[in-house]
Amino acid sequence: MRQQDALQAFASWVDAGLVEAEWAEPLTLSLRLTGARALALGSRTDGSNVELLGWSLGAPAEFLSFCRELSAGTGAHGVQERPVVGLGKICWASTLGRGGATVLFAFYDRDAEASNLRPIADMAQKCVVARAKYETSGAPTH
To answer: Based on the structure, what is the number of domains in the chain?
Structure first.
C-alpha cells in the first residue's frame, strides 16, 4: 500500500463521514489500495439485512446484486471470501461498531490478495459511525 494513496483515500473517508458526502469517492479512491475491481459499502443495524450505502464508480450491476443477496449472511466479523461462477471472487470485511456493523464488499476478477481490505473496512466503519453520531446530534456537517 503506497503511503500517498493511503493518505488520500483515508482523508476522503473522513471527509465523507463528516460532511455527508457520497461514499463513492472514498470507495473509488480505495480501489487502488485494495487491488479490487469494485467496492461497495454496506451497513447493518441490529440484526437487519445490510443496506448498501454506496459503491465505487463503475461497479458492475451483477456485483451489487450479489452484495445485496449476500448481505443476509455477512454476520461473521473479519475478512471472508467466496468465488462466484461467471463473476470472480467476492470478498467482504465486516466490522462491528456502536449501533451495528459495517461491511465492505470487494470484487476481484482475478485471484488477488485481499489483505488490504481490512484496514479500509476499519476506516470506513469509523467514518460511518462518525456520520451517524453527527446526524443524531444535530451538529452541522457542511
So the answer is: 1
